[in-house]
Write a structure and sequence with these properties.
149 residues; 0% strand; membrane; DUF3429; DUF3429 domain-containing protein
Length: 149
C-alpha cells in the first residue's frame, strides 16, 4: 500500500471543515448564533452538514465515474451504474427532517465506502485510496453524531 499523497490528504481533510463546523455550531449554540449572523442560517448546524453531505456524495459519484472509465466492457458498464448510486442516494434520501436525513447520509457514506472498496479491488482506484477514504468516512460519520444522538 502506498502512502496517501500529501495534497490529497490535506484537501480531503480540508473538505471536512463544513461537516465539523456544522457539528460545532450544534454543540455550541453561541457559535451557531454568531455563524448565523455572520454567514447566514444556511451555513450552521444541520443545514450546512446536510447540504454539504449531499454535495459530497454527488461529487464522489463523479470520482467513481472517473474510475469506471479505466474499465472496459461489462465492467465499465457496471462501474458507470454503480457510480451514480451515491448521487441518487443523496437526492432521494435527504428529506424528512434533519435527524432522518443525517442517518441516511451516514448510510450513504458507509455505502460509498463499499463502492470505493469495490473500485479499488478492481484496480481502478489508486493503491492508497482506501487509506484516505476510510479515514475521511470515519470522520464524516463522527461529525454527524451530534445530530443523530
Amino acid at each position: 500500500m502506498q502512502a496517501i499523497p500529501r495534497s490529497a490528504l490535506w484537501l480531503g481533510l480540508a473538505g471536512l471543515i463544513p461537516f465539523f463546523w456544522g457539528a460545532l455550531t450544534l454543540l455550541r449554540p453561541e457559535l451557531g448564533l454568531w455563524g448565523a449572523a455572520t454567514f447566514g442560517p444556511r451555513f450552521i448546524g444541520p443545514y450546512v452538514q446536510l447540504f454539504y453531505g449531499a454535495v459530497i456524495l454527488s461529487f464522489m459519484s463523479g470520482v467513481l465515474w472517473g474510475f469506471a472509465t479505466k474499465a472496459s466492457g461489462r465492467a465499465a458498464t457496471a462501474g458507470y451504474i454503480l457510480s451514480v448510486i451515491p448521487a441518487l442516494w443523496a437526492f432521494f434520501m435527504t428529506g424528512g427532517g434533519p435527524t432522518g436525513a443525517a442517518v441516511n447520509l451516514i448510510v450513504g457514506f458507509l455505502g460509498l465506502l463499499l463502492l470505493d472498496w469495490h473500485f479499488w479491488q478492481m484496480g481502478l482506484a489508486p493503491k492508497w485510496w482506501m487509506h484516505l477514504r476510510g479515514l475521511l468516512t470515519a470522520l464524516v460519520v463522527l461529525s454527524f453524531l451530534p445530530l443523530v444522538l
